[in-house]
Structure formats: structure tokens, C-alpha cells
Amino acid sequence: MTLSPLLPWQQQDWVHLQRYIKQQRIPQALLISGKKGWGKQHLVNQFVYSLLCAKPQADGLACGHCHSCGLLSSETHPDYMVIKPDELGKSLTIDQIRNVIARLTLKPQYDGYRIVIVNPADAMNANAANAFLKCLEEPTERTVIILISEKTQALPATIVSRCQKMALTIPCRATLLVWLQHQQPDYSTSDIETLLDLAQNAPLLALQYATDETLSLRNTCFSSWMAIAERRIHPVIVAELWQKIPESPLIFWMTSWVIDMIKCIYQPGSQQLYNPDLSKSLQALAQQLELKALYKLYDLLLISRQRLQTPINKQCLLEEILIQWFQLNQCK
User: How far apart are CA 263 and CA 268, in angstroms?
Assistant: First the structure.
């Protein structure tokens, strides 16, 4: 775990966490929530270093040089434990929780706190959550449990009720634009704006999009979307081509295009679009489509987002959406 500077939009949240330390009222269980890409883990790392550092600075940040900071950097600190899924998208299992419970029966090896991170906490399956409840109900000596989640509604109420809760401050867009432009100086201001729009103002997600060419992929998908509308390609062919693309961003992109078209019908020339860089094409489409049909497609997309949580056939899911989009344009 590396010690990196605080992110510019996290100052207010850091003051909140430092207040716990200054008042010597460290929560035994703290639930930190916020959208993906806001830097929850980054902020928690700072808090962990601060709690375990032998010589913290005046602003509460860790020194980065003491023995404890060195152990954290090399991921060998005996009083720091992380519970996370073995694979991305998998659940946290009861065996993982039992392993931590067994370790917590031992005394901390140093005089400071012992810290357990659960990320993402909402990945616990039912059995794991029930077992983990024991940690919260019977906390051990000098132990701080930090749960990180972007889906707190998926956590059992029994767990949430036993935690102090901290929702991250919504980042200021102007601050995010400056930071992202500094990270990606080769991108134009309009591209930076578009990246933030695509990431729904989640700066770390926008940075990921900049480095993995998500913007280019989204533009390619929109070209296919337009080709279906113009009946230049069959929707089943596009669904097959989109098989290798993660379905979550795909559904979001299509949903944002439909929302923008609905906005264009209600307010032609609207500036409050998810995809301002595509406004010309979206407005042209909106002028030719029925509002009722767009709402029907929007409903299907919302249902499809829920279906992503189930073992559904991705090809069939995409075909259903794209065929409805194709038929909607046949009526214009």
C-alpha cells in the first residue's frame, strides 16, 4: 500500500477523519461510502497511515518514514488486514471472514491500533455478512474496522446500524477539471469535459477512461448506434460485435443517449446533456422520433441494468435493446 498525496477534492473529508483522531474518538466500525472513482480507497489509505504512523505531521498526515509506515508500504504490517474478493466481481466468503476473526482473537503486535479494511463491503454474501456481524458486536482490543462501499443499500441493515457512517463529499467539478487536465495535458478541454461526463463526475474513473481509450470506444459504439438508426447495419450484427465490451458501460452509454434525446425533444438546443459532444447527432435523431417510443426504450434500458446483476445471456440482452432501437427508427 503506497502513501500518495491527498487528492485535491478530499480535503474536507480528510478534516472529518482527522477530527476523530484529534478528539481521540476513533470509531470501532466506520462505513465510508461514495461513488466509484471518487477515491474512497485512496482516502482510507491516508487514514490508515495516519492511525498507525509513529510520527504524524502537524496536518495529521503520516510521516512516510517511520518503521510503521515502512511496514505499510511493503504490505507487511502485522496489525493491518484487508478483506477483498479473491477475484474481481466475486463475493467475500465466510472463510475469509472466519480467517480474520481468528486473527483478531490475538493481541495487536504493536501499541497502536489494529485495522481491518473490508472493500467492497457490499460483496459479502449472506453467510459472510452474518459471520462478520460478530466482529461488529464484539469488537476486540484496539481494533478499527473500516468498510468501503459504493452500494450501501446492498449491505444488511444489521451491519450498517453498527457503523458510524461517512459519505464522501461530492467533488467540485471545477476542481476535477483542473486536476484531470493536469493528469492528461495532451487532452483538449472539451475532451476533458467529455471524459468527466462519461464518468459521471468520478475523476479517477475519468482518468481510467483517458488511459484505456474508453472515449474512442464509446464513439465507435455511437457510430454503430447511428448506423442501426439509419438501417445501414442489422442490430443482431452489432450485438455480436459488442460482445467483448463490458456490458455496464454499454448500458450506461445507451441510456445516456436516450435521455439526451428525450431532453432534446422537451428543450431543443439543451446544454444539459450527458453527451454534449454528440449533441448535433442526438438532436437530429430526436426530431424524428416519437417521445412515447423513446420512453419505452428507456424503460427497457433500466430493466436491463437490473438484469446485469443476474446470470443473463449478454447477447440476448443486447439484441433485445438494439432491435427495439431499430424498430423505433422504422416508425419515423
Answer: 7
